[in-house]
Amino acid sequence: MLRRVLRQYLTTTLLIAFTVFTALGQQSRASLRGLVTDERSARIVGASVTLTDSNGQTKATLSNDEGIYVFNGLAPGKYTIRASATTFATSSDVQIELKAGPPQSLDLTLNATIEEQRVTVAADTSLSTDATANANQLVLAGKDLDALPDDPDELGAALRALAGPSLGPDGGQIFIDGFSGGTLPPKSSIREVRVNQNPFAAENDQMTGRIDVFTRPGTDKLRASAFMTFNDESLNSRNPFAAHRTAFSVRQFGGNLSGRLVANKASFIVDFERREVNDNELVNATVLDANLNRLSIAEGVLTPRRFMNFTPRVDYALNESNTLVVRYSYNHSNLQNNGVGNFSLPQRAYDSLFTSNNLQITETAVINPTTINETRFQFTHSRTEQLGDSSTPTLVVSGSFIGGGSQVGQSVNTDQRWELSNFTAIQKGQHTYKVGARLRHVNIVSINNSNFGGQYLFTGALVPQLDANGEIIPNTLPIPVDSLERYRRNLILNPRTLLSVNDPRHLTPVDVRARGGGAAQFAINSGNPEASVSQFDFALYGQDDWRIRSNLTFSYGLRYEYQSNIDSPLNLAPRIAVAWSPGTPSRGRPPKMVIRAGLGIFYVRFNETSTLQANRFSGDGNGQQQFVVKENLLFDSNGQPVPQVPSPLDAFPNVPSLAGVSTQSQQITWRVAPTLQSLVAYGLGAQIERQLPHKITMFTGVFLFKGQHLFRVRDINAPLPGTITSTDVTGVRPFGDVGHIYQYESSGKMNQNQIFVGLNSRFSQSISFFGNYSLVHNNSDTEGQGARSFPVDSHDLRGEYGRASIDIRHRFTFGGTWTLPWWGLSLNPFILASTGAPFNIITGVDTNLDGQFMERPSFAPAGVACDGPGKPIDVVCTQAGNFNVKPAPGEQLIPRNYGQSPGYFVVNLSASKTISFGSIHSGNKAAKASSGPSAGTQTKPGAGIPGVGPGGLGSSEVKRYSMQFSINVQNLFNRVNFQPPEGNLSSPSFGQSLGLNGFGGFSAPGSSGAGNRRIIARVRFSF
Fold first, then answer.
1. Exposed, middle or buried, 892 (CB in 10 Å: 0-12/13-18/19+)?
2. Which terminal Cβ of the chain has fewer Cβ within 10 Å, N or C?
């Protein structure tokens, strides 16, 4: 009751504040606003707009994410205005006389350049107190994008790395032209990327980690470009984990064609790209050879991947005030030999097909000189099909190797999503109001035949000591062995294997298990493979950016969110922010320092894939069933194995009958807790921005997050603590002997503190750079909605709080552009460095019978013997420490994510050279004008403005054709960046890094077996 009253009070207070602020009086100074568009009236985001008064004093701003620029608090008088943007021609100077009173309006139109590489005008780095002009946002356009990977998967990973630590464990969000959940387009189709703009805006889902990608519009004249990218193993260094240089090749080609459909009405652009990648996955595993000796293998497995993207876009000016943009994207991929790599052997390979159709429609209406409205609609239909072998069961030797069939079968996922949003921006005096809403819906129909053929699991354990003949040595205590030794014993002693067929002892499966052989677990699925989920979410927000004075902006807003399938009726998210420039503002000059601060509430939604899992394994008898059979390996007081009854596990290597499994197994049920609610985080941030000499802007600040209701999975029917004894090996379960009940809950917590410092500079037309460093502390007691979120003890969560898996303490990024004037060569470095992420250390044994292998050891006593007769049987000594793998009840365990991965450092460098030829002459007779349109009148964008409207480039000579040659070196210094070490104590590879950490520092899929350093060549032709 008290909670509801407080929420109602907060809502009422915000609404009253909103009304009071909008009713305050306006200052009697001049103001100017307008819309920056291209030739087809498509809005240009991040255009640099400069206003110069009669005394030569300048003031600069950027067009925001609606393409609107605003100048407030101006002295009446005559001004000169010009606009520029990357890949567009700089406009001619326009004269306008501003008068005190209502805001005047002047729309600007920029023409695309024929040769994009000629124009390298970047966004102005002048400081501003505008809410959207925070200096720690990153803007990438033109050549700034060249240093990033061409591969869309690696490009997405690189952008997420640039976005830095995000709120919660889910990583950054990528928006394509304002739409969420889209597929990242080819880099050649991208006009601009903005990272972490305006973190406290009510229109943002999350505080940090937002990545906005804007695609290119059509042009008024016929223009085209074509490119090809080449790479193979001859240009790459050897993978240090592979014995030899593995086969690898990339053939990426595509292009675009744009032009006019209807004069002064409609334009088009068509993008096409195809990637043919013969990739490699590195298998790094420990197996047994023909003589049952351990054999380490490290080999690359060819994984052909084919990708195709086709994207047409049409921009249509419906009338002087309304513009329609329609964009369609077709994506298709064919991935072969999936599922191979790391411990997974080549026999586990399966193929995957993916097809996606995406339609985006955007209608923009300039209602009047102070109001703009935009409506967006997106529909996406995608289909994923996986084909693999299910005829043989999967064999998992924990932390050693995975063999057998892929157990994928024929699985098909059909995914349909649509999104509808509306946004209105109103400029009224010193206020900029933003009101919007978004409704999204997803429907997934999934046919999943995974694990219908079964899976055997071998883990480490305490087993009897055997002599050379495989007999138990009397009067000896059991010893800990890893998973591979248990598997080896099973091959030697099991009567069903060829190795023991001539054994005169004729051991029974029970005898084999008594000697330390036998599988630890068998799991199999059955029943109806089809499941579905339907889910929608809704968001409504309002915001006011109030420029109280020319050096002070106060922003406040409220966001409301709701999603189906969980309890989330009152997800209210207020946001408040302020930007202040100390001192007396100088007329017409940008401030030298800006101080920003903000706070807000943010929500993270419960994803539909977890709901699908709960629907699939609901336990109602109509869906899929998931059965698990576990071993009970016991010893008496003398350390001798206790005889056991036959088990379905004894059928190895064959598949036991489903009837036998169902009668001697535990069934797994998944469900969503009825009290589950959205993750909520409270964010607070402050930063200082300072303008330094040589056009350098420096910023430093701090972000504080406190998260509640983080998602986790818990076995609510796990045996109660203390009920598993030597006489009762099954324990007492709260809901009786009905199997595991895995429940999604929102009972986690998180605390994240981040200190950051950075700079960016547009030093000159030929030199620009950016860099930032962050120090992060991120602690939590869950890892999100995946399998890693299971706690050690489902009935006691107090020991789970510790370092989060995303707790990368130190991060540093640097990038830039340097154009050498005497060669015309452009250099683009990109540097990424960070400390490693933590990793969890586990015993690899399910001692609490919750069906998971997340148990952590305790620290061994100080001074414990690691070898010889005095070594305790439960102690494992490693370079990471000495651990007790069988802690006593109540004994304190090691912290979660106790291990520390090695850091990584990578330098990428691209170099490009453009050759232009084929001169053409273009001229334009534009009417001269001494001032812009009068206040309160509506004009067609660019009308009557010399050098700004269509065809207003003036008289100039440009080049008709251009050829760009570029070389991109990824991991220039060939540094080996190791992936997190193996944390399973029952693995023969514990503590070892078995592969590269992604590629180039980016955690992108694939490429684990390719060269450590790559040299990629590209050529591009444009006209």
1. exposed
2. N
CA 625 to chain centre: 32
d(CA 978, CA 524): 34
Q: Burial level of 62, CB count in 10 A (0-12/13-18/19+)?
A: buried
Provide the pLDDT for residue 843: 93
Number of H helices, E strands in the chain: 6, 49
Instruction: Say which residues have a Cβ less than 8 Å from residue 835's Cβ, sequence separation at least 6.
Output: 808, 809, 810, 903
Distance CA 512, CA 675 (A): 47
Q: pLDDT tens digit string along 524-550? A: 999 999 999 999 999 999 999 999 988
Cβ–Cβ < 8 Å for 195, 173: no
Sign for the pseudo-dihedral over CA of 751, 757, 762, 767: negative
CA distance 545 to 295: 65
Burial (CB count within 10 angstroms: exposed 0-12, middle 13-18, buried 19+), residue 648: buried
DSSP string, 60-128: EEE--TTSEEEEEEEPSEEEEEEEE-TTBPPPPPEEEEE-SSSPEE--EE-PBPSSGGG----------
Of the two residues 353 and 467, the one the predictor is more confident about is 353
Taking residue 56's Cβ as centre, other Cβ atoms within 10 Å add up to 8
**Long-range contacts, 683-686 (Cβ 8 Å, 24+):** 683/167, 683/199, 683/200, 683/207, 683/598, 683/599, 683/600, 683/601, 683/602, 684/598, 684/599, 685/199, 685/200, 685/207, 685/596, 685/597, 685/598, 685/599, 686/595, 686/596, 686/597, 686/598
In the block, tokens 């994928």 appear at 408
What is residue 635's DSSP assignment? B
Give residues with Cβ within 8 angstroms of 977, minimum separation 6. 902, 904, 905, 906, 996, 997, 998, 1001
Residue 324 burial (CB < 10 Å; 0-12/13-18/19+)? middle
Q: 10 Å Cβ neighbour count for 924?
A: 15
Please tell me the distance from the alpha carbon of residue 654 to that of residue 606, in angstroms, as a whole number. 40
Domain with CATH 2.60.40.1120 in the chain: 2-130+924-961
Residues 181 and 863: beta-carbon distance below 8 Å:
no
Q: Is the sign of the CA dihedral 798, 799, 803, 806 positive or negative?
A: negative
112: confidence class by pLDDT, cuts 50, 70, 90: low
Q: Is 512 helix (H, G, I), strand (E, B) or coil?
A: helix
Q: Over the stretch 779-822, which tens digit does the pLDDT of each residue have?
A: 999 988 776 789 999 999 999 999 998 899 999 999 988 988 77
Q: CB under 8 Å to 539, separation ≥6 — which residues?
A: 205, 437, 438, 559, 560, 561, 562
Residue 611 near residue 533 (C-beta atoms within 8 A):
yes
Question: How many residues are recorded in the chain?
Answer: 1023
Query: Which token pair is 870?
Result: 């005095």
The string of pLDDT tens digits covering residues 299-345 is 888 999 999 999 999 999 998 889 999 999 999 999 999 999 899 99
Dihedral-angle region of residue 30 (phi above 0 means left; psi in -120 to 50 means alpha; beta otherwise)? beta
Q: Domain 2-130+924-961 class?
A: mainly beta
- Token pair listed for 708: 């509640």
Report the relative pairing of strands 210-215 and 173-176 from DSSP bridges.
parallel
Query: Between 142 and 574, where is the model more confident?
Result: 574
Q: Which of these, 842, 721, 724, lies nearest to 787 by C-alpha position?
A: 842
Q: How many CA atoms lie within 13 A of 710 on its CB side?
A: 26
pLDDT band at 65 (very low <50, low <70, confident <90, very high): low
Average pLDDT, the chain: 83
pLDDT in tens, 173-215: 889 998 988 788 888 888 889 988 888 999 998 888 888 999 8
How do strand 266-288 and strand 294-317 relate by DSSP bridges? antiparallel
pLDDT over threshold 70, residue 49: yes
Tell the burial category of 942 from Cβ atoms under 10 Å away from its Cβ (0-12, 13-18, 19+): buried
